Amino acid sequence: MTPLRVGLAGLGTVGGTVARLLVENAALIERRAGRPVDLRRVASRTPKPGAELGAASFDTDLRSLQADDVDVVVELIGGETAAQEIVSGAIDAGRHVVTANKALLATSGEEIFEAAARKGVSVGFEASVAGGIPIVNALRTGLSANRLDAMAGIVNGTSNYILTAMEEDGADFATALADAQRLGYAEADPTFDVEGIDAAQKLAILAALAFDAQIDFEGVHVEGISAIDIEDIRYARELGFSIKHLAVARLADDGIEARVHPALVPESMLIAKVSGVMNAVMAHGDAVGPTLYVGPGAGGLPTASAVIADLVELARGTLAVARVATRRLPNLGIDQVICPHYLKIPAIDQPGVFADVADVLSRHEVSIEAVIQRPQAIRSGVEPWVPIIILTNDVSEAVVRDCVAELGGLDGVTGDIARIRVADLSAMMPPT
Amino acid sequence: MTPLRVGLAGLGTVGGTVARLLVENAALIERRAGRPVDLRRVASRTPKPGAELGAASFDTDLRSLQADDVDVVVELIGGETAAQEIVSGAIDAGRHVVTANKALLATSGEEIFEAAARKGVSVGFEASVAGGIPIVNALRTGLSANRLDAMAGIVNGTSNYILTAMEEDGADFATALADAQRLGYAEADPTFDVEGIDAAQKLAILAALAFDAQIDFEGVHVEGISAIDIEDIRYARELGFSIKHLAVARLADDGIEARVHPALVPESMLIAKVSGVMNAVMAHGDAVGPTLYVGPGAGGLPTASAVIADLVELARGTLAVARVATRRLPNLGIDQVICPHYLKIPAIDQPGVFADVADVLSRHEVSIEAVIQRPQAIRSGVEPWVPIIILTNDVSEAVVRDCVAELGGLDGVTGDIARIRVADLSAMMPPT
Predict the structure, then answer these.
(1) Eight-state DSSP code of residue A141
(2) Quick one: closest CA in A to B127, which residue?
(3) Which residues of B touch A213 (CB under 8 A)?
(4) For residue A110, which phi and psi values (nearest 5 degrees)?
(5) What ipTM score was computed for the predicted complex, to two decimals?
(6) With 80 as the cut, is the pLDDT of residue A375 above it?
(7) A394-430: string of b/e by CB count within 10 Å (b at 16+)?
(8) Is the pLDDT of residue A431 over 50?
(9) Which residues of B touch A317 (CB under 8 A)?
């Protein structure tokens, strides 16, 4: 049979693993694909002596992959400018593309899919979201009978590792981050992961696919986990919640809600139990109801598994041709979100303060679902204040913002008020 | 565009829902499929006045679906003989087939796939296992880069509903079963579900797909949940486990292990938290590592979602052509399984009995990992005995069988010994 001829750009962790698997598992992959999937050319600006490339040729010029003996270019160099050039060059030359590049797809996905549609080539991007979990495939085909209306996920393994370590080991954020860096789960500059940018890019890709809409990545509301205090995690637990870094998207009548932020998730929900570097995506469809997908979200092998799945589909001729989203829906913005909130209010331990707090909430018509306030003596250390923990009922962003501003101005309130949204996922997934 | 012309056999819950969705969601499905998916003919031995069939013709003769104006026959009548005739007839006539019929595939899948391969037609069977969860798609394509080596699942919603009700509400088996029947989760004759036959059929289909092997359905070890006592569930919980009805398959060097039975699952694992009629499948691949898929396992809408997903793939031309498993591997049988066991030994509450029990286990070189024995006074009711609960370490079937026989012969043991395997899924899925 005619082989599918692969040109591979990038020999980092994922690229090196893809090359190795294509060589080592050639027989298995041929059986699954129905024809050989041959690694023909590899290009990397930095040579990697010792990389297992089989019979493939190597070049430090990335443009070498535009040669005629390549059917599909696998882009695994990351970043945006050079990656964009490789991908555009490949599509213009009539080659299929497989990429794990979430940044590229989140910001330039539309142009890429349009160019691919014009050329009639496919763009595989299973590896760009949630590593080895075949979630793109599930959304593209497995759930194709459904009008998908909501999704929520834990799509950044670094943040989930840190939050899990804080919850399970009682580590503070800085210690958990340092551990994650030591173990290779976080970069030296962790901003991209812990501030939610990575998760927002993945959410933009998933939501575009699920809702068949062009998603304005800039419009995704993004908050990271760096402000989460170990105390918040303890209080949340006491109230029956885990704090998770969630990516949430909903299709509403008047647009799309897309947001990434820490959230209190009821411990009764499966996704609250997804720990460490595992990823999880919940997707809700009108026919299927709630579904959940869990697996390793990063790493050489899981990501390579997703890249090769796209190659197998290409070889079979079953990878859907790139489809340009048919509609652009307004991004509703965070102000449209209504949900319960967790508030931690640092207060002087004296009569009347709680009454003042309750009064502010009452005047804004915010109901209190739960309160925790401990006698000062129980608190260790030297803080001259006690935290008042309040779980509100459903409240809009505008109202909660006003409340927090007003609460901050009270005489008895001594510092910044922490607020964390409570995830209402009951429509997406029944409790366990 | 040329439509994909559908002939539908069966107008029960699933068939009726498929017909309705094809008519009501025609525009959405056409957008996903790239061309119309038209319901042309419907056949059902019993007419269903009021069923929403759009422009489709209706006939009580199932053979009417072999007409020339049908591209794919959707078989949703269930059972084996008539279903087999419809499916074989359709394939012989060069039609594609989509079926939800697990019994048919578990027992005659091989012939069906061989016939389809000869005719070059596709057989879609996403709906035959785990309802709306796109697990067949995940195994066929999403994880195609992997050598899959292990899977475990909760694939019978009826049994999971009953076990959940027993665990959460303290209901006994008979009460929980009656509830399930009242709610429509269990048939009047529940044997097929609660004795594990349904789960074994689904396991045979999944394992054949995952391991690319012909699976001898008769060789799957099958035990149901009817012998599970509410007391077992309470003791298991005390030891940190949930009792789940698991379908487990492993690819070993010398064959395939395939078994369906109740098992103690550590509460730290996600799958232990999958409750009610939800299904879940864990699949482990050498590249991706552990993955988990959760969703509704039955019901008209979730199953219809899976049926229509296959139709969309057919319309796109991306449904993999039926592939005959390339190898037949020996079924290792339950005697090859080594795992820890839970034993409940009814014993007279007098000195020396525990020593005799411990002696039997010791002579068979079975280590005791945990013991629960309560003073008799705590036990309510009139039983003249106390249960001794023992959690063993890894032990083979032969040894545990010998132990149980010998323990049953002890003077101080007053009745049948309950034994339940402990699931060792750590290789498949990291604890939460």
Answers:
(1) I
(2) A142
(3) none
(4) -60, -50
(5) 0.92
(6) no
(7) ebbbebbebbbebbeebebbbeebbbbbbbbbeebbb
(8) no
(9) 317-318
